[in-house]
């Protein structure tokens, strides 16, 4: 890893910690599990949020 990459990663971590300290956790992603966050993020790339919610609901019913 280059020094520039390390510096960028450090800067991002500092920004994240500063925002987290100031505002706390936002709980803005309506998911019940990490899997739903990941699947929801992929689906929202090309799908409306309404359809993402339906897909996640169907996955929950299937026990995934």
Walk me through the structure.
- The chain has 64 residues and is mostly helical.
- It has one domain.
- 70% of the residues lie in helices and 0% in strands.
- The chain has three helices and no strands.
- The radius of gyration is 16 Å and the shape is elongated.
- The model has no long low-confidence stretch (mean pLDDT 89).
Sheet with most strands? none
User: What is the overall shape?
Assistant: elongated
The helix tally amounts to: 3
**Fraction of residues in β-strands:** under 5%
| Alpha-carbon Rg, integer | 16 Å
Whole-number tally of structural domains: 1
Blueprint (SSEs and pairs):
Layout: H1 3-23, H2 34-43, H3 49-62
Keywords:
single chain; 64 residues; mainly alpha; 3 helices; 70% helix; elongated
In short, what is this structure?
With 64 residues, this protein is an all-alpha fold. It has helices spanning 3-23, 34-43, 49-62. It has one domain (3-62).
């Amino acid at each position: 890893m280059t020094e520039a990459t390390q510096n960028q990663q450090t800067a991002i971590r500092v920004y994240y910690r500063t925002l987290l300290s100031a505002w706390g956790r936002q709980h803005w992603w309506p998911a019940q599990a990490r899997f739903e966050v990941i699947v929801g993020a992929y689906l929202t790339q090309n799908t409306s949020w309404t359809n993402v919610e339906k897909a996640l609901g169907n996955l929950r019913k299937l026990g995934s």
